[in-house]
Amino acid sequence: MALIVQKFGGTSVGNPERIKNVARRVARYRAQGDQVVVVVSAMSGVTDGLIKLAREIMPLPTEREMDMLLATGEQTTIALTAMALHALDLAAVSLTGSQAGILTDDVHTKAKIQDIDPKEIHSLLDAGNVVIVAGFQGRTADGRITTLGRGGSDLTAIALAAAIKADLCQIYTDVDGVYTADPRIVPGARKLPEISYDEMLELASLGAKVMQSRSVEFAKKFGVVFEVRSSLNDNPGTIVKEETQNMEDVVIRGVSLDKNQAKITLVAVPDRPGVAARVFKAIGEAAINVDMIVQNISHGSGQPATDLSFTVDKPDLLKTRKVIDALRGEIGYEEVIADENIGKLSIVGVGMRSHSGVAAKMFETLASEGVNIGMISTSEIKISVVIDLARGEAAMRAVHAAFLG
Amino acid sequence: MALIVQKFGGTSVGNPERIKNVARRVARYRAQGDQVVVVVSAMSGVTDGLIKLAREIMPLPTEREMDMLLATGEQTTIALTAMALHALDLAAVSLTGSQAGILTDDVHTKAKIQDIDPKEIHSLLDAGNVVIVAGFQGRTADGRITTLGRGGSDLTAIALAAAIKADLCQIYTDVDGVYTADPRIVPGARKLPEISYDEMLELASLGAKVMQSRSVEFAKKFGVVFEVRSSLNDNPGTIVKEETQNMEDVVIRGVSLDKNQAKITLVAVPDRPGVAARVFKAIGEAAINVDMIVQNISHGSGQPATDLSFTVDKPDLLKTRKVIDALRGEIGYEEVIADENIGKLSIVGVGMRSHSGVAAKMFETLASEGVNIGMISTSEIKISVVIDLARGEAAMRAVHAAFLG
């Protein structure tokens, strides 16, 4: 008998039939005596539908109200999931994030979990219930509804697993686990039996789409071992845990392509101290995450000026433009170029630390494919390049073949 | 400068364009210095869609989870309405029923408002906000989400108007006011400039569809004068208030047809004391409202037995059947007949008290139309008959012509 947190994403609860499948799976664990906390996302398509509705009202909806709106998505799913369990004669109670005791800061649409009070969950579990918690949402100390941003339901599951000291945290998704690359793009991709938090982090932050990096960071911080597995079958998934010795034997764990970034270039920014600080302070204050930053050497004959490029999540592009436009008078750049047609291609592996020539091999592979590199960024265990979005998938296949083929 | 509660129903907020219309109307009142609390329903179709979804999961969904599910409908609308006001540069904050301090009992799907703590609303109004409150919902003392049942948003508006001591309560709907009959069925129907609480109560409880009776009862109890008016134009609506002297001059204020009732007959119930009490106690305990009850004289040659008929709201039919089936062993009736194909036709008017021959005129009219009367029920200011649903609308037109034509 174990205490298990099971998280089901939007596709796994995409329609009533799939919600019933989730209930049947939960029932199997319940039948062997396990206590189960289920975390669910909004049914697939629902969140996007709500965002579309909001945009019909105003182009840049206010974030407090966006949270009020989006929180309905998961609330719908928890109620339906509880009903599906009742239909199997299992005791089950649904809780919104707020009711489940998930307290966050007040950064609407991107709130951070500050504390979880698991009292209500424990008391419902003790009374024999399956407890179904709305992922992705919480509340502020003064009672406002917040959402945790992209991938927030995974975060809810992992944070809950830590808070209730669960024996197991299973992240159910529409893939069998973590692959060496997205199998929908790279046919030869293979499932990994295990992966380290750090590799998973790089893959997550690089758009491998399996999980959002905050969730993995949280799991790493609190030592929550979790399994990414499919809600469509009973295959074992990929275990995500601390790095072990034999993981370094493999040079590259995986290849990822992030299509969700946009690149912004400030052309002819005065090259003087404090300019970059001013730009990224303003962007940070707007709670926009910047990923890559590249600044070239100074050029021009008069005032020294430089081009400053950086990438942000595509949904933040409009907000970023507003911030940058507001700084124009103060900073005095020449123009702003925004490019949504980029892809960020990355290779990841803890084995890079002990193997040389990895970057050269990646760049050679891209050159032989005729793919131009726009930006480069590296860490101890990953190399990322920004390339033309249209060439992204072909480049990904070539790099996968070179390292993992 | 007045403090106004404005309630907009599902049709008035049925799509983004209509929500923007609501915002523009609110803005006009705000521009003349009024403080406005807006109560909104779920967008039309949304609640039914959620109910359908729940039924795909299980035929008789649990009511606590039903409330969790349905509450998302209004929550969606409040967020969108707040955004629409923001788009007009008005300060606005949305509140769920729970956040607005609406405390209810714990009878899920039909909760009663027990108390309203208007602190949060007052503080947001004082800070210059339009406050948008989710109709139809509240929370129990221990934090569970409840809904108020059919027409609950009107109740929210009127209860809030009482709690915050509003100067005015406007119920916006898709009709211009209260009519002598539903103009969609009776072309000659006329709008009433005013109507008494009691007449409105009879019309509401009889399915005139303009408002639910609990809301009118609440308004009567707390002396909340309200106006029923259209969200599609600026025509004055119908003022609902205490009866005045000159109201009795009119014999019949209106004719209504309730298509939302179902009739249940227990055939050959043993005719002994306590049987009816047992039946309606069980139904009452299941929180099902019974409307008309008819018991005929005893018949049969052996044990004295009778037929017991009553009507309930159609959505309660399945639940009522369960209650009745469970009583079979104890009571020993012969069979149960359920009939959903009925309509309840009623005439209402405080003038009935001072005019005679009203019932006879109604029955004659129906007879001359060849409409058979199944059940009859009367009060001081109304006469209701149950007839074949298929003949309902024609019968309504005939009765309207006879009294008001």
Features:
Carbamate kinase; alpha/beta; 405 residues; globular; 11 helices; homodimer; 8-stranded mixed beta sheet; 4-stranded antiparallel beta sheet; 26% strand
In short:
Chain A is of the alpha/beta class.
Runs of chain A in which pLDDT lies below 50 for 5 or more consecutive residues are none
What average pLDDT do the residues of chain A reach? 92
Distance between the termini of chain A: 42 Å
How is the largest sheet of chain A built, in terms of strand order? 3-6-2-1-9-11-12-10
**Overall geometric form of chain A:** globular
The level of helicity of chain A is: 25-40%
Secondary-structure class of chain A: alpha/beta
CATH first level of the domain at 3-174 in chain A: which class? Answer: Alpha Beta
In DSSP terms (H or I, runs of 4 or more residues), the helix count of chain A works out at 11
Topology, number of strands of chain A:
20
- Biggest interface found: A-B, 36 and 36 residues
What is the assembly state of the chains in this entry?
homodimer
Major pleated sheet of chain A = 8 strands, mixed
CATH architecture of the domain at 3-174 in chain A: 3-Layer(aba) Sandwich
Q: Provide the gyration radius of chain A in Å.
A: 22 Å
SS strand fraction of chain A: 25-35%
How is the secondary structure organized here?
Two copies of one chain form a homodimer.
Chain A: E1 3-8, H1 16-31, E2 35-40, H2 46-57, H3 63-87, E3 92-95, E4 102-104, E5 113-116, H4 119-126, E6 130-134, E7 137-139, E8 145-147, H5 152-163, E9 168-173, E10 194-196, H6 197-205, H7 213-222, E11 226-230, E12 238-241, E13 254-258, E14 261-270, H8 275-285, E15 290-295, E16 305-313, H9 317-331, E17 335-339, E18 342-348, H10 358-368, E19 375-379, E20 382-388, H11 392-404
Parallel strand pairs in A: 1-2, 1-9, 2-6, 3-6, 9-11, 10-12
Antiparallel strand pairs in A: 4-5, 7-8, 11-12, 13-18, 14-16, 14-17, 15-16, 18-20, 19-20
Helix pairs in contact in A: 1-3, 2-3, 5-7, 6-7, 8-9, 10-11
